[in-house]
Amino acid sequence: MIPSNTICVSQEGPANALALNKDCTQVVIAGRNVFKVFSIGEDEFSEVCNLRVGKNLNLNFSSIDVAWSTIEENTLATAATNGAVVVWNLGRSGRSKQEHVFSDHKRTVNKVSFHLTEPSLLISGSQDGMMKCFDLRMKEVARTFISNTESIRDVQFSPHQAHTFAAVSENGTVQVWDSRRSERCLQQFTAHSGPVFACDWHPDVPWLATASRDKTIKVWDMHGKPNLEYTIYTIASVGHVKWRPQKKYQVASCALVLDCAVHVWDVRRPHVPLATFAEHRDVTTAIAWLSHAAFLSTSRACSVYRHRFLEAAHPVLWANPQSVCVSARGEVVHAVPECPLPALAPPHAAPPAPAPPPNDRHVPGLGRKQPTAGSLSATAQAALERAFPGGAASVVARHWPVASAAPHAAHAAPADALLHCARRYRMRGEPPHLLAKHNAAVAREAQRHCVEHVWEVVRAVCGARATARRAPAPPPPRAPPPRDDPPPATPAYRHFNCYETRPQHSLPHLGATTTTNEIDRSTAAQ
Hints:
Blueprint: E1 7-10, E2 15-20, E3 26-31, E4 35-40, E5 45-50, E6 63-68, E7 75-80, E8 85-89, E9 98-102, E10 109-114, E11 121-126, E12 130-135, E13 140-146, E14 152-157, E15 164-169, E16 173-178, E17 187-190, E18 196-201, E19 207-212, E20 216-221, E21 227-233, E22 238-243, E23 250-255, E24 262-266, E25 275-277, E26 284-291, E27 294-299, E28 303-308, E29 323-326, E30 332-337, E31 366-369, H1 378-387, E32 394-401, H2 414-424, H3 432-445, H4 449-470, H5 491-496, H6 516-525
Antiparallel strand pairs: 1-28, 2-3, 3-4, 4-5, 6-7, 7-8, 8-9, 10-11, 11-12, 12-13, 14-15, 15-16, 16-17, 18-19, 19-20, 20-21, 22-23, 23-24, 24-25, 26-27, 27-28, 29-30, 30-32, 31-32
Helix pairs in contact: 3-4
């Protein structure tokens, strides 16, 4: 559902970028198939002119980014998909408003940005890894800056130093340059673990916000050596980031994929957005603040919205305001709202007994300690005061275990039993089943019977394996010895076996021990 004060206008195609004039009364929308200027009214957008007209429409009219000069009311610049940087003059007579085309880049131009105080200076960042500073008076390239990194995704002039600009690239690097010197950058550091898609200078302090594919927004203090001040964790790759005017700690962002909403973050609370605007039905492609109370956004769904901050959704209000945490030593910390909800009593029930004062509440096994100004560490106290200057909206109470008589007592505190076991367990030096037996005895002494049973199971398993390894293997069965005598023959076998040794015969001419075989051989010789 669109809030009542949110206005919207539909386009012929998706818009890739938008830019405001210096008075924030007009907005230009640029995309592959759309290039229009609208007047921002109280209740509607009114089309002023359509710049995508004429017979010779080419890639110079298909824009990835657009910028509106902060000084010259009628000067626009676009970054084209064919590598051209096109300058437009809205005050030019005739239908065509194209003033000049710079074709110095060899690849697609991702970003164009006007100088904040010099109306004739325009800088661009391209996929070819170079940045070019154009002089609009001379209609030529004034300087070329070679990043020696991968493609440049965003370039922004600093509002604090007139000749300084920042450039971010796809290898996660941030470079700071002096626009008067093109030999080398002033500073270079790795800001993210993935490609950096956008950056934005804080209008009041020397902070630089960077947005990356690693799903984080980082805030860098650029006074001197770059120092990371804050990190915001999001759910998707961040494509654009813009500081909220008049709010030092608030920044808006939109994602490249998955998340179609625009989120406004308080950098001191990095995990939950301060406000969310979920009117878009496709990925948001650009953000521009009208004031601290309203901003414009466009998306791939061919729509442009004006959002009012008063109608934002606040995710922090959906979260459970009550929480509890238990430490390893058994300490319990819980937080509740300052004004707890009254308990619901059943109808016709007797009035409840008056509750004891907060300081007298008793938790079995726990004592209570109210936090004081000195109970937190200096770092935690400073972080709490920095995050909530007016004080926290919750009451935080801390409980600690009541000291027990001895670790082996029947009702020993869990933390005491844990420490008792941890100090007496053995993990090496003996066979596993003996270690498990010792540890089971330690757990039994601490009255941790479930843990004792686990150690007993470990002992049984390891002991069975050790016994199996120690038992000698049985010898293999011995084969029967081979027999020299032939097996006894059956009568039929004896009848047909011509090689059988026959009974001996006594022949006078052969001797008393002559066999039948010998008779056969002697007969054959004769």
